[in-house]
């Protein structure tokens, strides 16, 4: 490895060990921290500054060049605006997926090449290899940390210039290695939440950009239970934060969101976690992307995930027409959510996927 590799250093332990492993392999490396969000106006909450300092501390310890770049304008235009549009349409978007394709493996790589790097490395728990048919994206060795779901939109050109050293490791071994090496981030807590929101209160954050219209919360047979704060705050299958516990005439069992009626501004809920309004055997997806550049053949028996960390589900690709596909699952799937991604696999190989548009779950009859 004699060409410069730019490590995407987030200030976390995964990217820190990525840099350490590459250095120990004899690679010529540098680190770059990307700031994707302007945080000065968000109640003084700014984790980016601390994360950048941690990333720089690791780079200094390893004795490698360190760069910092602000990609906030590109993030706003290519990721966040679409995120808001999806919320307004009543869907539940996954901006991290789009961020990987448009920012981390596009804008970041462009800046890395301007600095003389022909390759990039990240701390994602995935693997990649090259066959006669091109580059493949593979699941990470640690099944509990596998992040291929978030990278299914990558293409051949992006994979050709990327490497994922920690994809061969288990998280516990990675932390032990970081501690043994004395990395300043060895004990740092893993980041959670949406990439640009982080640990902030999601509802308060969204209300800075969208105005929710309160409306009624009703059962699937139309009985009034309470009021919601705006449909943008809820997603299919959600059980926390509904504000309707202890309703007279009903049990103390939790409530689950089963449908959002935008036209009537109604939020439908149930206390039955196996309610037919929550279950789907089929879904339709759009905005398809395939890592190899070629779609699977209709009729192919594959596995799929409709959410991160879901166990692989057996599925048949029943229909493929241009930019849309229809999948049929062997078992009913709970809370198949429009706006989220469905990702297809052939064993350990991530094939690609699309954005869920609809499913065959039952819609409440009182919905418009």
Keywords:
368 residues; alpha/beta; Rossmann fold; SH3 type barrels; Elongation Factor Tu (Ef-tu), domain 3; 6-stranded antiparallel beta barrel; 5-stranded parallel sheet; 7 helices
What's the helical proportion of residues? 10-25%
CATH topology assignment of the largest domain: Rossmann fold
Largest sheet: 6 strands, antiparallel, barrel
The stretches of 5 or more residues where confidence is low (pLDDT under 50) are: 41-45
Query: Count of helical segments?
Result: 7
Query: What's the CATH superfamily of the largest domain, by name?
Result: HUPs
**Element pattern in H and E:** EHEHEHHEEEHEHHEEEEEEEEEE
Total domain modules: 3
Rg, Å, rounded? 22 Å
Which architecture of the largest domain does the CATH hierarchy give at level 2?
3-Layer(aba) Sandwich
User: Termini, distance in Å?
Assistant: 61 Å
Question: What's the short story on this structure?
Answer:
The protein has 368 residues and is an alpha/beta fold. It is built from seven helices and 17 strands. Helix content is 23%, strand content 29%.
Tell me what you see in this structure.
This protein has seven helices and 17 strands. The protein has helices at residues 13-24, 47-62, 72-88, 95-114, 156-160, 171-181, 202-206; strands spanning 5-8, 29-35, 66-70, 119-121, 126-131, 134-139, 162-163, 215-219, 224-228, 256-261, 266-270, 279-290, 301-305, 313-321, 324-334, 341-346, 349-359. It has three domains: 5-181, Rossmann fold (3-Layer(aba) Sandwich), CATH 3.40.50.620; 211-270, SH3 type barrels; 279-359, Translation factors (Elongation Factor Tu (Ef-tu), domain 3), CATH 2.40.30. It is of the alpha/beta class and 368 residues long. Helix 3 packs antiparallel against helix 4 (95-114). The strands form three sheets. It has a six-stranded antiparallel barrel with strand order 12-15-14-13-16-17. A five-stranded parallel beta sheet has the order 3-2-1-4-7, with helices on both faces. Residues 41-45 have low confidence and may be disordered.
């Amino acid at each position: 490895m004699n060409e410069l590799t730019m490590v995407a250093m987030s200030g976390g332990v995964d990217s820190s060990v990525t840099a350490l492993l590459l250095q120990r392999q004899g690679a010529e490396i540098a680190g770059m921290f990307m700031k994707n969000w302007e945080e000065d106006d968000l109640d003084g909450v700014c984790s980016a500054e601390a994360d950048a300092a941690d990333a720089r501390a690791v780079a200094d310890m390893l004795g490698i060049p360190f760069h910092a770049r602000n990609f906030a304008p590109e993030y706003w235009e290519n990721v966040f605006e679409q995120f808001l549009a999806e919320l307004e349409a009543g869907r539940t978007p996954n901006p991290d997926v789009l961020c990987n394709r448009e920012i981390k493996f596009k804008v970041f790589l462009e800046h890395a090449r301007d600095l003389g790097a022909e390759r990039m490395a990240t701390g994602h728990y995935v693997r990649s290899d090259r066959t006669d048919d091109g580059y493949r994206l593979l699941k990470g060795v640690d099944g509990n940390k596998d992040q291929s779901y978030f990278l299914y939109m990558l293409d051949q050109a992006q994979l050709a210039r990327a490497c994922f050293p920690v994809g061969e490791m288990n998280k516990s071994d990675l932390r032990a290695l970081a501690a043994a090496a004395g990395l300043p981030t060895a004990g740092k807590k893993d980041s959670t939440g949406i990439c640009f929101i982080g640990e902030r209160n999601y509802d308060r954050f969204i209300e800075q950009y969208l105005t929710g219209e309160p409306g009624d919360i009703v059962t699937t047979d139309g009985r009034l239970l309470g009021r919601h704060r705006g449909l943008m705050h809820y997603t299919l299958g959600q059980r926390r934060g509904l504000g309707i516990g202890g309703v007279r005439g009903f049990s103390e069992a939790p409530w689950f969101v089963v449908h959002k009626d935008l036209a009537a501004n109604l939020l439908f809920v149930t206390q039955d976690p196996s309610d037919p309004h929550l279950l789907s055997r089929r879904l339709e997806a759009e905005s398809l992307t395939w890592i190899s550049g070629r779609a699977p053949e209709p009729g192919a028996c594959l596995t799929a995930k409709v959410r991160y960390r879901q166990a692989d589900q057996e599925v048949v690709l029943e229909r493929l027409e241009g930019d849309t596909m229809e999948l049929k699952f062997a078992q009913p799937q709970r809370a198949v959510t429009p706006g989220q991604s469905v990702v297809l696999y052939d064993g350990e190989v991530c094939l690609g996927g699309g954005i869920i548009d609809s499913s065959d779950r039952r819609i409440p009859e009182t919905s418009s």
